[in-house]
Structure prediction request, 892 residues.
Amino acid sequence: MASQGTTPRWAILEKINRRRSWRWARRSFTALVLVAVFANFLANNKPLICQYQGQWYAPAFRAVAVDLGLLSWPANMINLRWEQQQFAWVIWPPVPYAPNQKDIYNNSFTSPFGQQTVASLQFRHWLGTDNLGRDVLAGLIWGTRVALLIGLGSMLISTFIGLLLGSLAGYFGDRGLRLQRRQWLGALVGLAIGGYLGFVARQPLWDLDHQLRYVLGGLLLTAGFCLGGGWLARKIGPKKWGQATWSIPADTLVMRAIETINAIPALLLLLSIVAIVRQPSLLSIIIIIGLLRWTSIARFVRGELLRVRELEYIAAARVAGFAPLRILWHHALPNALGPVYVALAFGVSGAILIEAGLSFLGIGMPADLMTWGRLLSFSRQSPAAWWLAVFPGLAIFVTVTVLNILGEVVNED
Amino acid sequence: MVWYTLKRLGLMVPTLLVISLLAFSLNQCTPGDAIAEKIPSTENLRDPLVAYLTYQDNYRRLAHQSGMDQALFYGSISSAAYPDTLLRIMPLARRQNAERLSGLYGNWPAIQAYLDQLELTIRQVLQLKAPHPSDPLIETERRLQQLVNQHDAPLIQQHLSSITQQLLLDSVLQQTLTPAVTALTTRYQYLIQHPLPYRHFLPTLRWNGTHNQYHHWLGQVLKGDLGTSLVSAQDVGEKIRKALSWTLHLNGMAIFLAYLLAIPLGVYSALYAGSRFDRWLSLGLFLLFALPSFWVATMLSKFLTSPDWFHLFPSMGVGEVSATASWWTVFTVRFAHFFLPIVCVTYGALAYITRQVRNSMLGILQSDYIRTARAKGLSERQVIWKHAFPNALFPLITMFGSILPAAIAGALIVELIFNIPGIGKLTIDSIYTKDWPIVYALLLLTAIMTVVGILLADLLYAWADPRVQLAGTKTNNHG
Prediction:
C-alpha cells in the first residue's frame, strides 16, 4: 500500500508555503476566489441593509435568494430602482453599482481622476466608467466570477477526460487493456443502441434548439449503454467462445485523438465552434472549452504513468492479484498526479485567457455578461479612456500570473 | 528514411480526414440560408402567384446547383419518423419546419397532407390577390406565410382560427377559400391527434453512394476550390491567399526575431545557470508568458499610435505604397506599420523558445560527451560552440512545426487590433458577417498547414538525428 501521507496530493500544499512568492500567489488566488464568490455583496446597486418606508430590508441578500428561487420580491419592489430611493438608514456595498447599471450622470467615459457627478465620495467611480456610464470596478468584480467559473469549470471537465484517457493510454498501453470477446461484443452493441437512442432518436431536441441538452444527454446515454452492454455481456454472454480476450490499442487511439485536436489552432477551432452556438450561455462555453482542452492533461498523465507502471511496487501489486483498475486508481494514479497539477494550473490560466479573448471579440459569449475582456474591448471606442485599457488587462495579467506561479510550484524543488 | 517518411505520411491521412469531417459538419450546423440570400428578387413580377412560383423555381435550381438537395454523407442513419424525401423540400426554412413537425409527431403521411394543403391554400390566396386585394386577404396571406415556418401547436391553432375569422369578413374570400381552409384545419387536427412517437425508435439505414454533399465538397477542396464567399461572392481561395501572405509576413518576421533573440539569451542563461542574469531573465520571461497579447496590443495601439497620447507610429493597417515607390520607401512604410504588431507576436514566442533553448542546453552540458570533451583538454569555447550548441539546437527544429500555427492563432486578435488584413482579421470579420465558407475553409487550411508543418519538422529532425527513425513513435509525443 502506498502511504497516503507522502503522496504529491498533500506534499504540494505544504510546498506552497516554502517560498514567499508562492505564499503570495496562494493568498492572491484565495482573494480572487473570495471576490468571485461574494461579488453580489461587493458591487451591487442594491443596499446591503436599509430602512425603506419604515421597514428593514436586506435587498442585496434577498436578490440572491430570488435568483436561487427561494424567495420573491414584494409587489412594490419588483422593478424598484434602489439607487434612486431615499432611505432613513442604509449600508451600501463597497461599490454601490451593478455591473450593467448605467449611470446617466457619468456616462461617455468618465475618468477616475476627473470631475464626477456623484452624491458623495462613496458613489465615486473609482476606476471610471465606460461610454454608457457603467462602473469599471463593478465590472471587474463581477468579471472575476465569470473568469474563474470558466477557468475552473472547463478544467474540471478537461481533467476528468484527461485523467480517464491519459491513464488508459499510459497504464494499459496498446496491449494491456484486454477485454473478453463477449464484453467487446456487448459494448459494441451497447454503443450502437446508445448512440442511436442518444443522438438519432433525440434529434427533435436539436431541431427545437435544446442543443446543450441534446449533446449532454446523448453523450450520457451512449456511454451508459456502452458500459452497460459490456457488463451485461460479461454476466450472461456465452462462456466458451466469449472468454477469449482481445486488447484495445488504447494508447494509439488516445494519441491519435490528441494529435488530431492539436493539429487545429486552438483559438480558431474554438471560435468556429462557439460562433454557431444558437443561444450562448456560460455553461455552453465551459463545456466547449472543457471538451477541447484535455489533451495536455492526458499527455502528462500518460507520460507519468509510463514511468510509474514500471516501478516495482506496481509489479508487486499485480503479483498480489489486485484488479488492474484498482491498481491504477489506488496505487499508480496518485503517484502520477504531480505533473497534472502543472497542466491544471496552466490550463485554468489558458482557459481564462481564452474567455477574455472571446469576450474581447464579442463572439460566443452571452451579450449581457460583464467580463474583463468585454471591458477591455470598450477601450477601443475611445482613445483617451486609458482606464478601460489598463485595469481589465491588469486583472487578466495578474490572475494568469498567479495561476502560472501556482503551476510552477510543482516543477521546482 | 524513405520508409519513415511513408509511415508518417500514412499516419497523416486519417488525421486530415477527421479534420475535413469536422470542418464539413461544423459548416452544416451554421445558421442561415445561403441560397435565399443569393436568389434574384421576384418583386418586379406583377402577378403574386407567378412571383411566388418563380421564386420557388429559382430556389430549386440554385439549390440543385449547390447540391443542397443531396444527402450529406455516404450513408446515413435516421429514425423512421423522418421521411427520406425531406431533402427535396425547399426552401431550407420549410425543410427545417417539416423536420421539426416530423420530430414532434412522427406521422409523415399526416404531416405531408397538412403541408400540401397549406401550399395549395397559399397558391389560392395568391391567385386571388391580384383581382381582389382586400385587407382580410392580406391578413390571411400573412398568417399563412407564418404557418409555413411554425411548428408550435398553440401558435398554429391561433393562426388557423384567426384565418377562419378573416374569411367571415369578406364574402368573396368566404366563397373561394372556405373549402381549402377547412381542409387545412381538419388535416392539422388529424395530425396532432394521431402522432406516432414509436417511430423514433425504428432506425432506418440508407446508403447514398458517392452522390452526396461531403464527397462533392471534398473533391472541390482537393482540387483547390474552397467555395465562394456568401457576402462578396468572391472566390474564397483568392481571399485567403491574399490574407495569408500578410499573416506569413507578420508571423515569419516575428518568429525569426524571436529565434534570433532567444538563442543567445537561452544559451547564456544556461551557461550561467543560477546567476543573477539567469534568475532575472527567468522571472522576466515568466511574466512575459502570462502577458495576454491582445492586452499588449490594445495598450500599444492606444498609447503609441493615437494623437491623444504619443503619436509615434501610424495607427492602422499596412500603409499605402504606390507600385512605383522605391524599395526604401516600401520598407520604411511597412516597417512603421508592422513594428508594433511584430512586437506583440514576438514576445510570446520569445518567452517560450528561450526557455526551451535554456533547458535543452542545460541538459546537454551535463551529458557525458561534454565531460569527455572537457577532459581531453578542449577550450571552453570549443566545447560550448562546437560540441554542445549544435546538439542543443535539435529540439528547436521540432518546435518550429508547432510554433508557426500557435503564432498564427495568437496573432488573430493582434491582427484585428492593428487592422492588418491577414487571416486572423479575415476569420473574425467572416464570423461577424456570418460568412461561413471562409471560416471553415480557414479552419481546414490552418489545420492542414499545422499537420504538414509538424510532419516537415519531424522529418527534418529524423534526418538530423537518425536515432529517431529507430524509435519512430517517440516523435509523436510533442505538439
User: Anything to note?
Assistant: Residues 97 and 365 of chain A are 22 Å apart (CA to CA). The radius of gyration of chain A is 26 Å. Chain A touches chain B through 52 residues (CB under 8 Å). Confidence is low (pLDDT under 50) at residues 1-6 of chain A.
